[in-house]
Amino acid sequence: MKTIIYYFTGTGNSLAAARKVAAATGDCELIPIALLRETRGAIVPQAERVGIVCPVYFFGLPLMVAEWAARLDPAAAPYVFAIITHGGGGESAALWQLDTILRKRQGRGLDAGFGVVMPGNYILKYESPQGKEREEILAKADKQIAAIAGNVVRCEKRTLPASLVSRLLYNLVYPWFRSHVRTDDKKFTVSDKCTSCGTCVAVCPSKNIELAEGKPVWKHRCELCCSCIHTCPVQAIQAGTETEKRERYRNPDVTLADLKIGTEDMS
Ligand SMILES: Cc1cc2nc3c(=O)[nH]c(=O)nc-3n(C[C@H](O)[C@H](O)[C@H](O)COP(=O)(O)O)c2cc1C
Question: Residue 80 CB: number of other CB atoms within 10 A?
Answer without folding.
Answer: 25
